[in-house]
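User: My instructor asked us to take a sequence, write out its structure as tokens, and then describe one feature of it. I'm not sure where to start. Here is the sequence I was given:
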Amino acid sequence: MNPEVQDTYKTISTPSEEALFKEKGSKFFGYAFPVSSEIQVKEILEQLRTKHYSARHWCYAYQFGTEKVTFRTNDDGEPNNSAGMPIYGQIQSFKVTDVLIVVVRYFGGVKLGVGGLISAYRTAAQMALENSEIIEKIIRIHFIIHFEYKNMNKVMRMIRENQLEIVSQKMKTDCEIEISCRKKTSQTVFETFHSAFEIDIRIKE
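Assistant: Let's start with the prediction itself. The structure tokens for your sequence are:
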């Protein structure tokens, strides 16, 4: 096991409870959602636009991934970098990923200025994350093992000894098993099977 490999990450378990921050008549509703794709982001934004149909702005930021991080911010008509980036700053501050934060604003008639907007969007995003249950997840690596049926006992023994999780298996003349393991043990697991006679192993793409 390689202790230097970071193989856990933080995310939120379920959508947060609605958070409300008020500033000079404007209302800022903050929401946090666990997400893993842009399709999910789009669906959630559509739902919130329907729910808050009379609001002025639906600003958001999201981040996916652990090894390769994807993120996006959107000011939705507010002055440049006054909404999306302060929201994204809270994602970074809480060190979470696979998360979307949306802040919906109802204009209260008084302009807040760029500084006031930054503070309000940051606070609503922070409140949404504080309303969320933050959990730690393990990064798992998936491998495909390919071998002839005669080597079944040997493969199963290796899986058991290395405490690996079987994800799926196809048993015919040739056998194929998908296994998963913690990222920090993946190099050892790969070498164990790679060095074994008549067994092929590859990372699942």
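For the description part of your assignment, you could build on this observation: The chain has five helices and eleven strands. Try explaining in your own words what that tells you about the chain.
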